[in-house]
Amino acid sequence: xxxxxxxxxxxxxxxxxxxxxxxxxxxxxxxxxxxxxxxxxxxxxxxxxxxxxxxxxxxxxxxxxxxxxxxxxxxxxxxxxxxxxxxxxxxxxxxxxxxxxxxxxxxxxxxxxxxxxxxxxxxxxxxxxxxxxxxxxxxxxxxxxxxxxxxxxxxxxxxxxxxxxxxxxxxxxxxxxxxxxxxxxxxxxxxxxxxxxxxxxxxxxxxxxxxxxxxxxxxxxxxxxxxxxxxxxxxxxxxxxxxxxxxxxxxxxxxxxxxxxxxxxxxxxxxxxxxxxxxxxxx
Length: 283
Ligand SMILES: [Zn+2]
Fold this sequence. Notes:
alpha/beta; six-stranded parallel sheet; three-stranded parallel sheet; 13 strands; binds zinc ion
């Protein structure tokens, strides 16, 4: 059997011994968990395009095919951990910008930087080429969210009108005080905390309570964390290629069911909350 399955090449899964037929049935069922009123958009807030140092890869054409299969209108995309020889993510950011040009309306480009390596210039360059936001990974690039270098980058992004998506959770250090300190210095920052801040969710949610523009993405998040948040603080995300769209949609469908979100709440989660942070009109 060929084609794509759960965001991967189905023949590779089959060669590895997976029951492709059963997985395909499950994928269809999972994608169907989220039912939106007609005419509303679904936007994925968290996708990596390119080739990570760890071997994970996603190409733009494959992403768009997967978006079509899952009924998703568009995705925010940024590089994986692919800083390049200069360490400034410049080429990886350029490739994301090119992909967004080729797939206009389907891919919303963010840039990624290392606050310690030419970040200001890299952001300015990405801005000129259409970037709409910034992705930061404190663990991969080894910096503290409240460090001077990071504060400066977040301040610059905020001046450009960009939201900043942070990898968050799963980490070794407590993040509540770190983000509280960052927001004290840049109170108007628009922050998207990835993975629902899994592992450190409660401390981060307590910080977010004081900042209406701090939200959490659902990618690889914990169901109880999502169900406990006000839905206007949640944006749908998949973390492709680490996550897949079917499981991402299923997770949000479960959270909606557990927390009893109405249509309005669901439309916010699936695109409206993100579009507000991007300075747009809503879902
Ligand atoms: Zn990610």
